[in-house]
Structures are given as C-alpha cells and as structure tokens.
Write a structure and sequence with these properties.
With 77 residues, the chain is an alpha+beta fold. It is built from one helix and two strands. The chain is 19% helix and 17% strand. It has a two-stranded antiparallel ribbon with strand order 1-2.
Length: 77
C-alpha cells in the first residue's frame, strides 16, 4: 500500500498536474469521474505520458485507457 500526501488541494484539471508519482492516480480519478458522468463503465488507466516540456506552467497529458463492459471509442464522442 502506498499513501500519498499533499499539503495543497488536489488539482481539478489535468493541465495543473505536474510530473509526479501521484499523477497517474489523480488522472485515473479524473477519467473515472468523466466516465461516471457519461454513465459508462469505468476504464482502466493503462498509461499516462506528459507531453509538455519540463518546467511549463500548464501540462498536457496523453492517457491510454482500457475500456470495459462493451464501451467503445464511439461512445466517447
């Protein structure tokens, strides 16, 4: 078990999540919330890569998700 602690609020947007050990957990939670809102089965975060350069104020992420329970890419549009 790993416990992460942060002294500030957890970011609410991927652009505010910098490269860290906890980034994947926060991004997975954001994806889960989006899929819950769309009433789709929660995905599995198979990978997350930060595309922005180190030191940038905002961050861009590429997420690789595994879809379950019949959810398809066309359901996401």
């Amino acid at each position: 078990m790993t416990v992460y602690w942060v002294g500030t609020a957890v970011p609410t947007s991927p652009e505010h999540i910098g490269r860290s050990e906890a980034a994947a957990w926060v991004l997975a939670r954001m994806a889960n919330k989006a899929f819950d809102a769309a009433r789709l089965a929660r995905p599995e975060l198979a990978g997350a890569v930060e595309l922005s350069e180190p030191g940038q104020r905002s961050h861009l992420w590429a997420l690789r998700l595994r879809l379950y329970n019949g959810a398809t890419v066309s359901d996401l549009s």
